[in-house]
C-alpha cells in the first residue's frame, strides 16, 4: 500500500556533466512531484487516465490487484489459524483455509513483483537509451525498493502458510501407550 501511494517510483538522475539543479523531480503511479531546495514540495496528479501510457496503467492495475488480494489473503489465512474459533470442529478444513490463504498471498506477491519489476525495467531501459537527453533521465525511486521488499515478504509468508498443508494419512503402525502404574499406597517409600 505504501509503495503504491508513494510518488517516488522514479527520480531524476543527476549523473551527467556539470548538472546543478535546485529541485528534485519524482514520478509515481498517481502523480509527479518537484521538491525545491527550500524543502517545498509541489505535486501534480496526472490529468487523464486515458492519456497515460498503457504500461503505467497496467502497473497501477497490478499494484491495486496485489493490495486487494493481500487483504483477501489476510482474511482467509486468519480463518485458518489454529487459535481462531471459526471451523474449530474440522481441523483439516481449517488447515486447508490457511494453505488457501498462503496461495492468495503468493499470487498477491507475484502481482506486486511483476508490477515493480516491469516499471523498474522501463526506467532502466530509458536511462541507458542513448537518445534520452541527459537532463530527463530517471533512476529507481525508493517506492520501487519498498515494492520489491513487500513482494518478497508476501511470497515468503505465503510459502510458509502453504507449508502448513495437512499431511495425508500414513500407514505407520499404531503407537502403544505406556503401561499405567498402580497407585502407590505410600508403603513403598522409606
Automatic annotation (TrEMBL):
Any one GO CC term of this protein is: bicellular tight junction
Q: Where are the transmembrane segments?
A: 58-78, 98-120, 140-163
- Annotated compartments: Cell junction, Tight junction; Cell membrane
Q: Which PROSITE patterns has this protein been placed in?
A: CLAUDIN
Superkingdom, taxonomy of origin: Eukaryota
In what way does this protein cross or attach to the membrane? Multi-pass membrane protein
Q: What is its main location?
A: other
The record, for InterPro entries, names: Claudin (IPR006187), Claudin1 (IPR003548), Claudin_CS (IPR017974), PMP22/EMP/MP20/Claudin (IPR004031)
Alphabetized, the UniProt keywords read: Cell junction, Cell membrane, Membrane, Tight junction, Transmembrane, Transmembrane helix
| GO molecular function terms listed in the Swiss-Prot or TrEMBL record | structural molecule activity
Family to which this protein belongs: Belongs to the claudin family.
Function field:
Claudins function as major constituents of the tight junction complexes that regulate the permeability of epithelia.
What protein am I looking at?
Claudin
Q: In which organism is this protein found?
A: Ptilonorhynchus violaceus (Satin bowerbird)
Amino acid at each position: 500500500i505504501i509503495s503504491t501511494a508513494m510518488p517516488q517510483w522514479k527520480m531524476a538522475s543527476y549523473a551527467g556533466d556539470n548538472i546543478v539543479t535546485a529541485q528534485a523531480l519524482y514520478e509515481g503511479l498517481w502523480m509527479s512531484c518537484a521538491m525545491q531546495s527550500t524543502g517545498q514540495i509541489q505535486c501534480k496528479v496526472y490529468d487523464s487516465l486515458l492519456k497515460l501510457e498503457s504500461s503505467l496503467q497496467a502497473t497501477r492495475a497490478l499494484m491495486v490487484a496485489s493490495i486487494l488480494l493481500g487483504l483477501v489473503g489476510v482474511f482467509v489465512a486468519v480463518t485458518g489459524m489454529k487459535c481462531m474459533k471459526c471451523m474449530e470442529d474440522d481441523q483439516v478444513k481449517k488447515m486447508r483455509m490457511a494453505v488457501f490463504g498462503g496461495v492468495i498471498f503468493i499470487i498477491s506477491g507475484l502481482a506486486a513483483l511483476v508490477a515493480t519489476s516491469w516499471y523498474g525495467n522501463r526506467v532502466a531501459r530509458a536511462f541507458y537509451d542513448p537518445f534520452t537527453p541527459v537532463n530527463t533521465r530517471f533512476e529507481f525511486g525508493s517506492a520501487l525498493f519498498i515494492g520489491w521488499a513487500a513482494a518478497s515478504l508476501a511470497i515468503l509468508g505465503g510459502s510458509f502458510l502453504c507449508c502448513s498443508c495437512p499431511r495425508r494419512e500414513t500407514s505407520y503402525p499404531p503407537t502403544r501407550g505406556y503401561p499405567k502404574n498402580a497407585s502407590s499406597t505410600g508403603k513403598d517409600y522409606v
